[in-house]
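README: folding subset

This subset contains proteins for which both the sequence and a predicted structure token string are available. Records are stored as plain text. Below is the entry for HD domain-containing protein (448 residues), shown exactly as it appears on disk.
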Amino acid sequence: MEYQEKLLPREKVFRDPVLNYIYVQHQVILDLINTKEFQRLRRIKQLGPASYTFHGAEHSRFTHSLGVYEITRRICDGFLRNYPSKVAGDGLWDDSQRLVALCAALLHDIGHGAYSHTFEHIFGTNHEAITQEIITSEKTEVNQVLSKISPSFPKEVASVIDHTYPNQQVVQMISSQCDADRMDYLLRDAYNTGANYGNFDLTRILRVMRPYEGGICFEINGMHAVEDYIISRLQMYMQVYFHPVSRSMEVILSHLLQRAKELAGQLDKNDSLTPHLLMPFFKNDFTIDDYLKLDDGVLNTYFINWIDSDDKILSDLADRFINRKPLKSVEYNNETESLIPTMQKWIQEAGFETTYYTAVNNSFDLPYDAYDPNKKHHATQIELRRNDGTMIELSKISQLVSAVTGKHLGDERFFFPKEMLSQDSDIDLFEPVYQEFQKHIKNDELIK
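--- output ---
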């Protein structure tokens, strides 16, 4: 579908620490940025509790969404300049697709909730489904802005998010193994956490990216830039996204919300500790309006209030989260996993309810996932275009990428209260329990 939309009299720019300038040329993009649903993203951190580990990671879903828009805009510009479609069906870039691509890029994360992934786990929400609902619901400002383009335009944009949009070039710009979303969050997260190994050559990747009839591919002479991106992504997952302290704070947050959910009947007393904006989620009966009222600050306000709760577990978990008192953790494997129930028994004997003060947490990621016909779901693989126009999949030609293809990298960790590692010789009756517990921990690992 071709959409025409008016340009701004003069393009607007946002100064950005990662991409320098973000250019807005279409009125609809500026109008979307100014909707209340998009502005809410300013109040949701991109990396959730990771700022407890990397203190610079205060950036928001708002800044990331603008970044994904800008990278998508640059891809469209490059495609129009170098690969414009001459004849329908020639596999080159049809610039009438630009507007739907830009809107989908800008709005791809609009359904993320407060502390998004942890919140989703506890309350069973789905940010992608909610993203589509925000785009298609006539009640939202976002929908009203999109509908000015065409009555069918919101559904077109939503179909890009759920990968059903017919033009795969547009879909893969925003969702593939080398897309505007991943490229922005890697660079942005690397910048804000200080993790320089997350950097890669964005300019070069955009230069060698090109459209073809199956979607998006890369010129083979740009293979090393794509390799660098894959390895940067691997490093960011291992060093930042899977950091044990960040995961520990996520465990505390998860258990805190779980405890509050279980106490919902007691919390619904219409006093200062009542989390009115959370009650619809505790009762599993919420609307899109309820969802959009929540952000990180709302939850933090409730957590601060809960520090004064009569419920000792709720109070303590809230204190641990707000005031950064992470759990400790150790790696375990198939041989030592059987020790965990014994470790939990000692933790229980030391006075900690294991449901809330212990956890096993697995964090694994595929740095690169090549096509496997036996898989039900598989990622879009990265195709390289050879000089004769034929394609070859990245891991078939790159030894570096081949080495990490299909390999789950990460670890399994057992989380427990820091108090279990106490070395205080004056400790009271729990000292023997602590000593037994500590015998099974060495070099950050669980041992027999």
